Amino acid sequence: MMGTLAAVLAGKKIRTFKDLFNANVTGDIEDVDGVLKITRINVSYWLKLPKEKRAEAKDALESYLKLCPGAQSVIGCIEINHELTMEDLIE
Fold first, then answer.
1. What is the three-class DSSP state of 30?
2. Residues contacting 81, CB < 8 A, separation 6+
3. pTM for this predicted structure
4. Which sign, positive or negative, has the C-alpha torsion 28, 30, 32, 36?
5. What is the spatial distance between Cα 72 and Cα 86, in angstroms, rounded to a whole number?
6. Which pLDDT does position 90 carry in this prediction?
7. Are 65 and 71 in contact (CB under 8 A)?
8. 38: helix, coil or strand?
């Protein structure tokens, strides 16, 4: 998922070098009818970018899941939550 979002951001000329972009991923495992299942994936992205690119980054976050093979493989079975925290890059 992170790679797909990075590719969409790159298409919008938003850099995703290691010091500018990261993700914290957690998940929930629940007992569903006696079987332990991953029910939820929570992804918190952090991105440092020029202030004028914020709208494009929000657009990327809203659109990347439909392009992501991993996400598309589990959507409908596992709930995916994501958020993006942005920090201004002073150039």
1. strand
2. 40, 41, 42, 43
3. 0.91
4. positive
5. 25
6. 85
7. yes
8. strand
